[in-house]
Specification:
4 domains, 8 strands, alpha/beta, Fumarate Reductase Iron-sulfur Protein, Chain B, domain 2, about 425 residues
């Protein structure tokens, strides 16, 4: 397979401006002139002889809407991401903002520090003085949604979880930082669904996928994270065990984003990319092959569902919607909003918070119009943003499937279903 660098696609641009009209960021702020101008147009002036990077490229959220609508296949979001990396490596980002960006881009490292003192950390992060201090010192917007840390992580639960006897098949689960430090219930739901379908679930050694670092232009650190995951995961694949993940941004990073941005196409990278699946992509394949077990319980709810940008970037359709469609009584109303606005770490930054909220406004209005007691979304940061913008608790689709397979509900779903 021939791998083409994103910059090699910029001459495919026909200046149709479709990407500009579709861009959710350019629609709400003049600080970002649009994908065409920052991507293929400005990209022609970047290089070893003329390393010009306009600071406005940092206002690209990386949502990939431009990639999805481009009729000629220009890899605009990746061109912008690599331009941001040039800004960072060239010293164009202030020390204060680079420190801020590195802190928010290392959820695993911060999570390990915060977990032993989770109640105290949560109190500090939610207090007015703590939020004001974070904004004044680091530029973290005091209004941005911060999820609470959990004292007990997913991996500690998994170690005590009894394994089902006689499982015919085995799969490896990539839990992601959010499941480990903020939402262990999502991982428990994923295990319940996989075990209901006859799988023994393995939990490989793993670390942060590196996407937050990639999004903040810290490519050298991201490469270290990615290489570490490759070394930990490739052995499972060589043993015939596939990787599934409930964080659609993590799975996209392993499948495509890290290899493409970092130029990482060695044997291990290709194997991991080819054998990593989004959770519902994996279940849909089971359904198509006749292996998917029938659900045993109805969910009598009408809920808004938003497919996040990182999920659409997989280019696999909408498997979560298809799987939720198998649950009796559940009515899913699909969002047509382009983006929730948070874009990973983007909406946490003081200079971008208002942009993120303006981008998410159509989605917030949609969730309000559906009027359900919950919203549904595959991305953790999108869930937190939806709840922040609407007051409606948001859950992962796998939580609905786990309940339909007979598992006890947790968190917001338990409060609604009792």
């Amino acid at each position: 397979m021939i791998h083409v660098p994103p910059e090699a696609t910029l001459d495919h641009c026909i200046k149709c401006n479709i990407c500009v009209t579709a861009c959710p960021v350019a629609a709400v702020t003049d600080l970002f002139p649009g994908p065409k101008y920052e991507g293929p147009q400005a990209g022609r002036f970047r290089g070893a002889s003329q390393p010009v990077v306009d600071h406005s490229v940092d206002y690209c959220s990386g949502c990939r809407v431009c990639n999805q609508v481009c009729p000629t296949g220009v890899r605009i979001a990746e061109i912008n991401a690599r331009a941001r990396a040039l800004m960072v490596s060239g010293g164009a980002v202030s020390r204060r903002l680079r420190l801020r960006n590195n802190l928010v881009a290392r959820p695993e490292a911060i999570g390990r520090l915060a977990r032993p003192v989770a109640p105290l950390a949560n109190l500090l992060l939610r207090s007015r003085p703590g939020r004001w201090l974070g904004e004044a010192v680091l530029g973290l917007d005091r209004r941005a949604p911060l999820p609470p840390y959990r004292l007990r992580g997913f991996r500690s639960w998994f170690k005590r979880h009894p394994r089902p006897a006689g499982a015919a098949r085995t799969v490896a689960y990539f839990q992601g930082c959010s499941t480990e430090y903020f939402e262990p219930r999502v991982g428990r739901a994923a295990v319940a669904v996989l075990e209901a379908n006859g799988f023994a679930v393995l939990l490989p050694p793993q670390n942060c996928c590196g996407l937050p670092l990639l999004s903040n232009g810290e490519f050298k650190a991201a490469a270290h994270y990615h290489d570490s995951n490759l070394a930990k995961l490739v052995g499972y694949i060589k043993d015939g065990i596939e990787i599934v993940g409930t964080s659609t941004s993590c799975t996209l990073t392993l499948k495509e984003e890290a290899p493409e941005l970092l130029g990482a196409y060695g044997e291990a990278a290709v194997l991991v990319a080819e054998h990593t699946f989004d959770f519902h992509e994996f279940l849909r394949r089971l359904r198509d092959e006749g292996w998917l077990a029938p659900v045993v319980r109805a969910v009598p709810l009408r809920l808004a569902y938003h497919q996040p940008c990182q999920y659409r970037a997989h280019r696999i359709g909408s498997p979560a919607t298809e799987l939720m469609g198998l649950i009796p009584g559940l009515e899913i109303v699909e969002s047509q909003a382009a983006c929730c606005g948070i874009a990973g770490t983007y909406g946490y930054k003081q200079e971008k918070y208002d942009i993120a909220m303006a981008v998410g406004a159509p989605l917030f209005d949609f969730v309000d119009s559906v009027g359900g007691p919950l919203a549904v979304c595959d991305s953790e940061t999108c869930r937190w943003q939806i709840t922040h913008g609407t007051g409606v608790p948001a859950i992962h689709p796998v939580e609905l499937l786990a309940y339909a397979y007979g598992a006890e509900p947790e968190g917001p779903l338990a409060e609604v279903l009792g």
